[in-house]
Amino acid sequence: MSPSPPPGSTIDRRLGTHSDDFDILLYYLYFDIEDPELYAEQHRTLCEELGLRGRILIGREGINGTVSGLRDSTDAYQKALRDDPRSAAIEFKIDPSPEHVFPKLSIKVREEIVTLGLGEKDFSPNETSGTRLSPTEWHAAMQEEDAVLIDGRNNYESDLGRFEGALCPDIDNFRDFPQWVEENREQLEGKKLLTYCTGGIRCEKLSGFLKNEGFDDVYQLEGGIVTYGKDEEVKGDGFDGLCYVFDKRVGVEINHTPSRRLITECRSCGKEHSEYSNCAWKSCNARIFVCDECAAESGIYCDDECRRNDEAGVVLTKEEQLARRAEVAASRER
């Protein structure tokens, strides 16, 4: 699990790198880990030896991670996981990069590698999950009259980009999905439910949850949005905006067809803009879109109320903060 760097590797070459010498890996696998703490310790040793940075969650049910590193390092990391019989089936989504996209390495042990919070009703996606659709199958299924696309991500992710016509639950956390499904059951009944997310892991769980809730016709986009954008046949067709990713890139291109378009705009002037900022009033701190010109002129605020409160030094309680963010969310045009 913790091999030495391969002979002749360049993993110790920290400076003077050339364009796209790095790779970004996105991956997950549900498999049994008897001792997550020990596995995490061994995994940390491996990643540190290879000079990797990123976020990795480990639990008894498997691993969920995204890391960046020099190409020799990420190649060695992939080999290490595939050489381990427990994780031999793991698949990696790979993007080239000119640099690291994470500031440090974070490896944490969790009860769930993606948190749906079902407690005693929890299940393994290896036992229950929606039917997997390849990108070409997904593209065809989207056109069907009874198809309902469900975005399996948080609201700030779907605000940046989403499949055309998808249901995008206005939720802050993945664990809010069970309540959303209960509240929206009527519009889902009798439909062909197509679930999607960034890399596939959340839809492994969401599609299985939907099946356990009695929905029979449930599907998931295999490999997620990222794989859909890399497919040479569909080329990301039907995806509007950018795909939110949890690293310094924030948003990545998916649609490589003439239908490609941005769907986000500056909150102040309405100009097309796709870079997230946080409201400068710390008690709000909502994710918003404000263009450079408006930021320079008026600061980065949701509205005049946030600006006035910031200037007055107003501090909200946790409950008031949540209420304020709900107001901001309600004002978004989706």
Question: Mind sketching the topology for me?
Answer:
Elements: E1 22-30, H1 36-50, E2 53-59, E3 62-70, H2 71-83, E4 91-97, E5 105-109, E6 131-133, H3 135-141, E7 147-151, H4 155-160, E8 161-163, H5 177-183, H6 185-188, E9 192-196, H7 201-212, E10 218-221, H8 224-230, E11 239-241, E12 243-244, E13 251-252, E14 276-278, E15 287-289, H9 292-298, H10 304-312, H11 318-330
Parallel strand pairs: 2-5, 6-10, 7-9, 9-10
Antiparallel strand pairs: 1-3, 1-4, 2-3, 8-11, 12-13, 14-15
Written description of the protein model:
The protein is 30% helix and 21% strand. It is an alpha/beta fold and 334 residues long. It folds into 3 domains: 22-109, 2-Layer Sandwich (Alpha-Beta Plaits), CATH 3.30.70.100; 119-252, Rhodanese-like domain (Oxidized Rhodanese, domain 1, 3-Layer(aba) Sandwich); 276-330, no CATH class. A 5-stranded mixed beta sheet has the order 4-1-3-2-5. Helix 7 links the parallel strand 9 and strand 10 (218-221). The protein is globular, with a radius of gyration of 21 Å. It starts with 21 loop residues before the first strand and ends with a helix.
Mean pLDDT value: 92
Morphology: globular
Q: Count every beta strand, where a strand is a DSSP E run of 2 or more residues.
A: 15
- The CATH class designation of the largest domain is Alpha Beta
Strand content: 15-25%
CATH architectural arrangement of the largest domain: 3-Layer(aba) Sandwich
Distance between the termini: 45 Å
Tell me the count of domains. 3
| Total helical segments | 11
Strand order of the largest sheet: 4-1-3-2-5
The rounded Rg comes to 21 Å
Biggest sheet, in brief? Answer: 5 strands, mixed
Oligomeric state, counting identical vs distinct chains: single chain
* Sequence stretches where pLDDT stays below 50 over 5 or more residues: 1-18
CATH level 3 topology of the largest domain: Oxidized Rhodanese, domain 1
- Portion of residues within helices: 25-40%
Order of helices and strands: EHEEHEEEHEHEHHEHEHEEEEEHHH
